[in-house]
TrEMBL record:
Alphabetized Gene3D superfamilies for the sequence: Jelly Rolls
Protein's recorded name: Cupin domain-containing protein
The organism's place on the tree of life at top rank: Bacteria
Native organism: Rhodoglobus aureus
């Protein structure tokens, strides 16, 4: 990435899209992609929406840019508010938006040997 990205501006745009959408979600990959080892995706979730249980393809963190979320696994849950950085567990997990929220998901895919 050779240009500066305003996460604040992108968060506002994606949140407006999420609130207006039928599924209450919006996402934009801002760095990397499916074939890159590092991927950063900005996700906006309308209050009451979330990401159902899933696995992560590698090490990952979630940073809360707007709102309030819960990150949960089978045995634990963690709340995240503005500015919080949460390591994502390696086990199956899910995310719930407790209020209109925007998160920055950073994933480093495990190298395949």
């Amino acid at each position: 990435m050779n240009t500066t990205v305003s996460l604040t501006e992108l968060a506002a745009t994606e949140l407006a899209s999420a609130v207006a959408s039928n599924n209450g979600r919006s996402a934009l990959t801002i760095c990397g992609g499916r074939d890159a080892q590092l991927r950063q995706t900005l996700m906006a979730l309308r209050a009451g929406e979330g990401l159902s249980e899933h696995s992560s393809p590698g090490e990952a963190t979630l940073q809360v840019l707007v709102g309030h979320i819960t990150l949960r696994s089978a045995d634990n849950s963690w709340e995240g508010k503005l500015g919080d950085l949460l390591p994502i567990p390696t086990e199956v997990h899910a995310v719930d938006a407790l209020e209109d929220s925007v998160i920055l998901l950073t994933v480093v895919k495990a190298q395949q040997l």
